[in-house]
Design goal:
Blueprint: H1 2-23, E1 34-46, E2 50-52, E3 56-58, E4 60-71, E5 76-92, E6 97-100, E7 103-106, E8 112-128, H2 131-135, E9 143-162, E10 165-185, E11 190-199, E12 205-215
Antiparallel strand pairs: 1-4, 1-12, 2-6, 3-5, 4-5, 5-8, 6-7, 8-9, 9-10, 10-11, 11-12
Length: about 220
Amino acid sequence: MRRVLFWITLASMVAMVSLSSAVAEEKKPQKPAQWYMGAGYMSTTFDTDITPLTATLDDEDHGFKVFGGFRFNDYVGIEMTYANFGEASLKGNTGDTFAANGITYSFLRDNSSVTQKVWALSVGGVFFLPLDKVTGVKQLKWITPFGKIGSYYWDSDLEASNTSGSVSASDNGVDLFFGLGLDINLPRNFVIRGEWERYNGDDDIDAWSANLLFRF
């Protein structure tokens, strides 16, 4: 269901391109160096290294991101992002089992759950491929593929609970991330962005996002 919501969101944004293009007036070329800011909806998958046996693992969720950046020229930029990845959870009752790192564990009480929530701050380089300039085909100015790579600070909150009570712990660190995406350039400096990112760490996270940004 969360994957469906992601694709519906992205498709709705893409549908705006033809409408906006039809009513837009001719504009002067944009300056190559420009600031931008935006926000987006994310569909996330946690790589927890846990295999549910009779317990229930939910390693997919949805989240959001806000970001800003600066393009030094048509090819290179820098970007900072705050991302909230949502949560992953493992649930079960007395006797339900799961495996982690080759070892099998079982819950000792009913209504047991382990929940992990993660957010991150990242900074990275963005490398654009302006197809109109590379190919000489002006009609391709509407789409710009890109890749990115950088580092991110992550913060993880873990909570375990059952009928006896609950305990919590937190952890943080710095790791690398990378991603690929496509910008759809609308009139009036608006951009629709579809993107996939991989955040490497103790528990890798894949994030697919549909974003809207504004250049200024």
